[in-house]
């Protein structure tokens, strides 16, 4: 049985591939707040909107000292294309491995759409403090207005 993560808990350790072929780990976030948003798939309407919304607000997140990271199971190459096509300024990371971060957090799970059941990324966002603890979780995110809501939470955290 996997652990359930909630506000106040230490965010789990992770290693994910970045579009440039490098890696991103929890240790890389030390000393700085972070927003990690999980989204289903590059180049889809809702995910594109969400990534563009966070990109638009990136200067405000930077001013607040917060690192923005989008995570899906898409490949590094697909992330490169997504960034280039939409001029994205947020960092992206690939959580491709089974048993990866999205599995650990429970944001990779059963979804239903038009009567079809399948496994997929459940759009969710985590705000972490500078010590890697979870300050806030947004489960089952609706894209419209979400980036602004997260920015507001960052400013009041």
UniProtKB/TrEMBL annotation:
Q: What is the lineage of its organism?
A: Bacteria, Pseudomonadati, Pseudomonadota, Alphaproteobacteria, Sphingomonadales
Oligomeric state and interaction partners are given as: Monomer.
Instruction: Offer one example of a GO biological process linked to this entry.
Output: cellular response to oxidative stress
Q: What is this protein called?
A: thioredoxin-dependent peroxiredoxin
InterPro entries membership: AhpC/TSA, Peroxiredoxin_AhpC-typ, Peroxiredoxin_BCP/PrxQ, Thioredoxin-like_sf, Thioredoxin_domain
Arranged from A to Z, the UniProt key words for this protein are: Antioxidant, Disulfide bond, Oxidoreductase, Peroxidase, Redox-active center
The annotated active site, in chain numbering, is 47
* UniProt EC number: 1.11.1.24
MF terms in GO: thioredoxin peroxidase activity
What chemistry does it catalyse, as a reaction equation? a hydroperoxide + [thioredoxin]-dithiol = an alcohol + [thioredoxin]-disulfide + H2O
Q: Give the UniProt family note.
A: Belongs to the peroxiredoxin family. BCP/PrxQ subfamily.
Residues covered by the Thioredoxin domain: 5-157
> PANTHER family this protein is in?
AHPC_TSA FAMILY PROTEIN (PTHR42801:SF4), THIOREDOXIN-DEPENDENT PEROXIDE REDUCTASE (PTHR42801)
**Task of the protein:** Thiol-specific peroxidase that catalyzes the reduction of hydrogen peroxide and organic hydroperoxides to water and alcohols, respectively. Plays a role in cell protection against oxidative stress by detoxifying peroxides and as sensor of hydrogen peroxide-mediated signaling events.
Identify the enzyme class: oxidoreductase
Q: Which GO terms describe its cellular component?
A: cytoplasm
Where do the TM regions start and end?
none
